[in-house]
């Protein structure tokens, strides 16, 4: 399981190092325009690959957001793993959001399904079926199954997963990221209902998206 490193994702190390070196070299050479360009790229990289801590709610029978961003859909669709019609909540991440993904519930990873695809705008619904994506199924402590789908976007070209089959995840634990603008779809098991509104801004591991209602 990949852990946080000094508030930054390790995947950003090469980009941050390159931008830092280029900024210093061009500054020493007094090539002001290039120095400023790479300084801006450095600031962008530090912002994009940041990985802040979150306050994970401890209330029972809830699901937290797997991603930072904006809720772009709350509805029903076919779960890509179970093939059953389920309630789905979709969160779109723009390039300025934190891109670390977190587990919505505590449970055991049952497996993954990777599907190659297109790279259309992740904010539209057809991205869930047309874009490159990786679906992870989690079995929670009550025996219910959840599906979290990482979906690459218009700019994103790499889905990163830090966990393996049979790994135990705690609620809000980091399990992966998607580089640049992308989307997370969360399919709820029966009995759970959304408590978040369309258009709401949410934080991974902290904002509650759904709870269990008998």
Description:
By secondary structure, the protein is of the alpha+beta class. The chain folds into two domains: about 10-50; about 60-210, Glucose Permease (Domain IIA) (Distorted Sandwich), CATH 2.70.70.10. The protein contains three helices and 14 strands. It has helices at about 15-30, 30-50, 125-130; strands spanning about 60-65, 70-80, 85-95, 100, 105-115, 135-140, 145-150, 160, 170, 175-180, 180-185, 190-195, 200, 210. Strands 9-5-6-7-11-3-2-13 form an eight-stranded antiparallel sheet, with no helix packed on it. Strand 6 and strand 7 (about 145-150) form a beta hairpin. Helix 1 (about 15-30) packs antiparallel against helix 2. It is elongated and about 65 Å long. It starts with 12 loop residues before the first helix and ends with a strand.
Task: Please tag this protein with its features.
single chain; 214 residues; alpha+beta; Glucose Permease (Domain IIA); 2 domains; 8-stranded antiparallel beta sheet; 3-stranded antiparallel beta sheet; elongated
Round the mean pLDDT to the nearest integer and report it: 85
Number of continuous helical runs:
3
Structural class: alpha+beta
SS elements, strand count: 14
- The CATH C-level class name of the largest domain: Mainly Beta
**Count of discrete structural domains:** 2
Q: N- to C-terminal separation?
A: 34 Å
Q: Biggest sheet, open or closed, and with what strands and sense?
A: 8 strands, antiparallel
Q: N-to-C SSE series?
A: HHEEEEEHEEEEEEEEE
Give the overall shape, derived from the CA principal axes.
Answer: elongated
């Amino acid at each position: 399981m990949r852990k946080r490193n000094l508030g930054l994702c390790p995947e950003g190390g090469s980009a941050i190092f390159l931008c830092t070196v280029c900024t210093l070299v061009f500054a020493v050479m007094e090539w002001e325009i290039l120095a400023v360009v790479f300084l801006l790229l450095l600031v962008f990289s530090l912002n994009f690959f940041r990985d802040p801590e979150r306050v994970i709610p401890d209330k029972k029978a809830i699901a937290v957001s797997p991603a930072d961003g904006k809720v772009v859909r709350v509805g029903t669709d076919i779960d890509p793993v179970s093939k059953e019609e389920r309630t789905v909540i979709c969160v779109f991440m723009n390039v300025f959001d934190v891109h670390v993904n977190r587990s919505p519930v505590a449970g055991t990873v049952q497996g993954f399904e990777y599907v190659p695809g297109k790279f259309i705008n992740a904010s539209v619904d057809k991205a869930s079926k047309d874009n490159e994506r990786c679906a992870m199924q989690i079995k929670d402590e009550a025996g219910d199954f959840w599906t979290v789908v990482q979906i690459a976007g218009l700019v994103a070209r790499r889905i990163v997963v830090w966990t393996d089959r049979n790994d135990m995840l705690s609620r809000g634990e980091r399990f992966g990221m998607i580089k640049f603008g992308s989307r997370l779809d969360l399919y709820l098991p029966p009995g759970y209902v959304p408590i978040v509104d369309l258009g709401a801004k949410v934080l991974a591991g902290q904002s509650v998206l759904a709870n269990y209602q008998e």
